[in-house]
Amino acid sequence: MNSLTVDTEQAVVIPCADYHLDGILHLPQNSKALVLFAHGSGSSRFSSRNQFVASVLQKNRIAALLFDLLTAEEDELDSKTGKLRFDLELLSSRLETTTTWALQHPLLKNLALGYFGASTGGGAAIIAAARNPQEIKAVVSRGGRPDLAGSALSKIQAPTLLIVGGNDDLVIELNKTALTAIKATKQLEIVPQATHLFEEPGALEQVAELAQAWFSKYLK
């Protein structure tokens, strides 16, 4: 548990009862906060988009933990059925377990905590944050499905930023509806001309800067 070092990218294993989750931790020197990433449907800790956002956070002394919400066996099952990626109760519980692990780790326990969720991970992040109001200080959702969080939307206390691509029409409407249910500090940012995966030139950079500004403001 004490083997982590600073200013490096390193693999971590997060114990969860009789299984474990694999992660990648970016821990800059003199980190002031830690963001846990909840990836989206069919993605993993190796997501290039989330890795890019994590790199921008690092430059601002915000550590980032990207981890798999599913075990290897579950991921194999999900690749065939697609069912687990929409199991928000399972995904949010994995995020909560990882939060507990971070809160107990000597090098991480004193850092302010936030969540960054993508796609279905956005809904899972809101549910987990609503259940842990004392620990989670900020949430950012990228192209997320906050609508899947249900009643947790009205219970979340952490300042919540929803980021959606300007050409992602259906997800825009879902996020607008979810936004009305959130009672905490909230904001919806629409990145012009961007589609769901923010693959257009400069789109992901805008996402990363918006996320960095939000976390820098609220993770204190």
Instruction: Decide which structural class fits the backbone.
Output: alpha/beta
Give the CATH level 1 class: Alpha Beta
Rg for CA atoms: 16 Å
Relevant CATH superfamily: Alpha/Beta hydrolase fold, catalytic domain
Q: What are the secondary-structure elements, in order, as H or E?
A: EEEHEHHEHEHEHEH
In whole angstroms, how far apart are the ends?
A: 25 Å
Q: In the CATH hierarchy, what is the architecture at level 2?
A: 3-Layer(aba) Sandwich
**Fraction of residues in β-strands:** 25-35%
Question: Share of helix among residues?
Answer: 25-40%
| Total individual domains | 1
Are there runs of 5+ residues with pLDDT below 50, and where?
none
Number of strands: 8
How would a crystallographer describe the biggest sheet? 8 strands, mixed
Strand arrangement within the widest β-sheet reads: 1-2-4-3-5-6-7-8
Query: Overall pLDDT, averaged?
Result: 93
What is the fold-level CATH name, i.e. the topology?
Answer: Rossmann fold
Could you write a compact summary of the structure shown?
The protein contains seven helices and eight strands, in the order E-E-E-H-E-H-H-E-H-E-H-E-H-E-H. It is an alpha/beta fold. It has one domain (8-218): 3-Layer(aba) Sandwich (Rossmann fold), CATH 3.40.50.
Question: Can you tell me about this structure?
Answer:
By secondary structure, this protein is α/β, with parallel strands linked by helices. The protein has seven helices and eight strands. It has an eight-stranded mixed sheet with strand order 1-2-4-3-5-6-7-8, sandwiched between helices. Helix 1 crosses helix 7 and helix 3 crosses helix 4. The longest helix has 17 residues, at 88-104. It starts with 7 loop residues before the first strand and ends with a helix.
